[in-house]
Give the backbone structure.
Amino acid sequence: MSLIRRLFYKGRKYYDDDFDWENYTADSYERRLKGDVESKFQARSSEGQLRFDAATGRLDTQGAELHPNQILILEAAGRLQPSSVHEVGCGGGDHIATMQRLFPQIHCTGGDRGASQLRLARRLHPDMDGRLALQDITMPFSRHWPQADLVYTQAVLMHIHTAVSHFVGLANMFAQARNQVLLMENQQCHDFVSDVRRLHEGGHLAWDDLHLYLFEGSTGARAMLASRVTLDLPVLDSDAQLRAGLKPSARRLKRSAEDSARGIFGFSPAD
């Protein structure tokens, strides 16, 4: 994005998504992966390198330098013990493929809207062939999407800002999940707690019961965990609670508030 477009973008009330998804792999993904992740962390782990300790709920990386977000996701799967997990926006497949190797008893699948992303994932993780498919979470819900006990995102919804697309994506994730939805996102990019609560109160979520929890990984990462059943975790009441300790980003918070304001929830008489 050029400097002029960046300046114009920051001043707009209505935004596009952060990336051109059709060209994401060539333009941004591999560059960001190598520059932001692989320069500091290990993106992929070999079989047998990781071990989950059920007694403590912690992941033993045995020296592997995994990103804290990835550790949190794996620890969530280990503690919740779902029979199936689906990753929305699986990208190059590193997270879901690592989970499948660590927890072979869990049926893991992934979806991404980019065909080039899926080609990369199949090249990097040929053992996941047949478990990864095209999926645009902002499209109307498809009965062909796999149902899973746990559905999660890692840095996906934070980039979606076109119209009410992130609301559609959230509602679709809940329709796809039997028991839990985990959002491992930049918590300032959307008002995730209030948005999910308003979707539920407005009748837009497939679940009758909704419980929101703060899930913290052993290395300090934090995420929002929505559950159909009660869990022994800290209750999440507000976005401020989720954002505690973060350095505020005025631009992101302004954009998240404007995104939320575009939602019209439920079906009720106008004032």
Q: What stands out?
A: DSSP finds nine helices and nine strands in the chain. The chain has a mean pLDDT of 89.
